[in-house]
User: Fold this.
Amino acid sequence: MSFTSVPTKPTRLNRSQLFVPGSKPELFDKACKSNADIICLDLEDAVAPQDKEQAKENVIKALNELDFGKKTISVRINGLDTHYCYRDVVDLMEQGGERLDLIMIPKVGVAADVYAIDMMVTQIEDKINRNKKIGFELIIEISMGITNLDSILTGSKRIESLHFGYADYAASVRMRTTNIGGSNSDYSILTDETNGERNIHWNDMWHYPISKMTTIGRAHGMRIIDGPFGDFSDPDGFKSHARRTAILGCEGKWAIHPSQVDLANEVFTLPESEVQKAKDIIKAMREAQESGAGAATLNGRLIDAASIRQAEQIIEQTKLIETLS
Ligand code: COA
Ligand code: MG
Assistant:
């Protein structure tokens, strides 16, 4: 391990994050009754400009009056390039009470974006003697956000998680897609001929930014969360979308419809077979170490101290889910 240690972030369950437009207060109660780990009340892109003020009032009222149980509550504010942004922060912080846990900042491009919000939040927390410290969730969804990721994460100690925004990212880098999180058969290769046949091999066009986020984000101790899958009538598509980012190191995924919440919880709860395998690895390695060996075999495969670290991650995440869900 490096001699430099990464500070521990607050531990939260983040398998499913259900978005609810702030302009639709009739959905808030339904969101509370869902199995979502985190509810994100949205003031940004799901709210039309003429509804922004009313949406904020709805959200502030909900933060003061609704029973969210033990769920984590987040509000997505408007971007720093809009005049809504500063008032979102001031009004939420001054009038939202203690229930709010996280502020989600969209379209982050440079560290100063996060620093600016931190400056406001810190002053208001101090002024109103807020007991609970607000955490930040950042949406990485513009090319600047991906390019400057490492330095962005030094912008505030409040940052806990990174979220991948498919649609804005696609628009930002001019990808040719219109479905939120969808695939495109043109992003494929035609295989060489084998047994007289050529096949189209589809590729995952979102791999690079998500992989960059898991690698750089984890170096700063962040949770990495997969963003939306727009086709809410396609549960199989959602699950396959979620599975691939779970494999890459994401801990959860957005749900833009209640039907996606249980699907996300299912995919991001580690399967019993993997947990059992992790336990077997730890047991086999302990036995090997007791007999003086540094490496061992389990079911014909090499395992060593790194295998223990991999297995421990799986056990730790499973314990977290058992404790917090
Ligand atoms: N949170 C809580 N409940 C929701 C919900 C949400 N985000 N979306 C839908 N529901 C409820 C509906 O009210 C309906 O309840 P009912 O059966 O009691 O009438 C039920 O779930 C089924 O909804 P459905 O009719 O299938 O969907 P819809 O056409 O009403 O809404 C969307 C579809 C996509 C417009 C809606 O789900 C939505 O606004 N999602 C959030 C979008 C968002 O926040 N985007 C920003 C992040 S990308
Ligand atoms: Mg976006």
In short: Residues 19 and 296 are 46 Å apart (CA to CA). The mean pLDDT is 95. The first helix runs from residue 28 to 33. DSSP finds twelve helices and twelve strands in the chain.
